[in-house]
Each structure stands twice: as C-alpha cells, then as structure tokens.
Amino acid sequence: MRKELIPAYISVILAMTFWSLTYVWYKMVFESYNPITTVFLRLVLSSVILVILTAPFRVLQKINVRDLKYFLLVTLFQPFLYFLCESYGVKFVSSTISAVIISTIPLFSPFATAYFFREKILRFNIIGIIISIIGVALVIFERGEDVEATSLGILLLFLAVAAGIGYSIVVKKLSGKYNAISIVTYHNIIGIFFYLPLFLIFDWKHFISTGFRQEAVLPLLELAVFGSSLAFIFFTFAIKKIGVTKSNAFTNAIPVLTAIFAFFMLGETLTAIKMGGIGLVIAGLFMSQIKRLPRMKRRTVIRPSE
Does residue 295 surpass a pLDDT of 60? Predict the structure, then answer.
C-alpha cells in the first residue's frame, strides 16, 4: 500500500465504523420518533453543526451554478432515496435478506465506475468482493432470523443499492472540484428541503403529539455528528483518493463491525460461524484493494543445439 493512500483507508474504516454504530443509535431514536422524523432531525442538526464549526475557518466553498444540478442529484440519491428505500424496504423484507441485498453495492459498483470513469478493476478484486459478501451472509444468517421477503421489499432495497452507487458516482465527480466538508454540508442542507414535505405530511402530527424526548437527544446528536457529518466526510475523502469501487467494498464491513460492537456493548455472542464470516469479509476486503497481481517472471528456455 502506498503511504499517501493510508489516510484514505483510515478515513473509509472510520466511516464504516460510524455507520455501523448508527444502527444502535437508530434503534434508540425509533423508540420516540418515526424514521422520516429521525432522518429530518438528523439532517437539520448535522447542517447546523457543520455550518457553525466551519464558518470561522472558511472551508466551505461556493457552489458553481453549473454544479448545482450535481448537488441536487447527489442529495436525491442520498440521503433521500437511499434512506427511504432502505427504511421502507426493511418493513417488507427480513433484516437478514435486507443486509445481504445492501451488501451487493460493492458487487455492482465496478460496472458503474467502468462505464462512467473507466476505472479498471482486476478479476481478482471482483473475487475478493464476492468472498466478502459470502462472509457478510455468514455473519447475518447465523443469527437465525426469518428470511421472509416480498417483491415490493426486494425492489425497494435494490433501488437503495442503485441510489447508493449513484451517490458514489456523483460524489466522485464533485470531489474533483469541492472538498469533502463542502460536499457533505451542502447535500445535508439540500436534504432538509427534500425531507421537509414528507415530514410535514406524514410525521408532523406524531412529532407534535410525542413532543420533546430527552432520551432521544443524545442518539440524535450521535447520528448527526458521526453518521451524517463525519462518516460522509471521511467516505467522500476516501472516494476521491482510492475510487468508488474500492471505497464501496468497505461497506461489507458494516455488518461485521455491528456484530463486534454488539458483542462488547450488548453482550451478544460471537460464534465460530460468525467469526469465520468476519474472517472472510476481512480477506475479501484485502483482495478487493490489491491494485495488481505480481507478474510471473518469464523463464528463458535454452534449447540444446542440434
């Protein structure tokens, strides 16, 4: 691994760590508020925090009018479509199947990047991604959950996969002109206006009747700071440095990290099958990041003279 890429790999690992923890924080907030309200408040808090912290340092770049369509598009993909399709898809599909479908993002990413950016990826890298997905399946299916699914739920989850890939593609394009903090701050602010109509139509009455819940404040702040701010900043930086395919490959680490955090924080067991799955994910991730295979040296064959 080249030394200049080490910060990018540290960044993507931190992003996946924060996103794996969001599942714990979401569960805590959902005890008080609905999913749309949670995402809306998460975006509002994240935007306010980012603007306040970055204003004194003037790191926010002005958006070129020509690039506004890309900021609208990246927001449409995520947080809008991705969160909506994933949240409602899980309602019709078991969490086990949902996690496996979402884990296919790295599998489809190479085809998108090859089309838009002509990024080259080795067959060895694809094999590594597939091995990683198998590891994810072992970690998840070992839980013994139901595997029920409906066609609508599966469709919504694959739309979430498409939105996740689309987000990465547009972020890659924007990262050539804008820094990670600017991209994340603007797409969070725009995301507020995407979610505002849904919040007012579907969740406003429930939000008013529920009122202020002190127990939801801390996990909401954690979602805003770590899930919507730092994780996206780190992930955007990684995409700029190591590309879409290699960055997305790390999304398979999210179920693994969640299982590890559940072991330490919630007392869940780590069985031999689950640990084997974790090993496959790590091995697959390593294979997916290798830039080139070592070339075999050609041997000179000396033929005896006749």
Answer: no
Q: How many CB atoms lie within 10 A of CB 31?
A: 10
The CA-based dihedral angle spanning residues 282, 288, 290, 291, taken in that order and rounded to the nearest 10 degrees: -160
Q: Give residues with Cβ within 8 angstroms of 217, minimum separation 6.
A: none
Mean pLDDT of 195-216: 93
> Would you say 103 and 162 are in contact if contact means Cβ atoms under 8 Å apart?
no
Other C-beta atoms lying within 10 Å of the C-beta of residue 6: 11
Sign of CA dihedral 202, 218, 52, 239: negative
Contacts of 61 (CB under 8 A, 6+ apart): 178, 179, 182
Calpha distance 48→229 (Å, rounded): 11
The residue extents of the domains of the chain are: 3-119+148-241
C-alpha distances out from residue 182 to 13, 69, 103, 186, Å: 21, 15, 28, 6
Number of H helices, E strands in the chain: 15, 0
Q: CA–CA separation, 267 vs 287, rounded Å?
A: 31
Mean pLDDT of 200-226: 93
Confidence of residue 305 (pLDDT cuts 50, 70, 90): very low
pLDDT for the residue 304: 44
The radius of gyration of the chain from alpha carbons, rounded to an integer in Å, stands at 21
Higher-confidence position of 147 and 93: 93
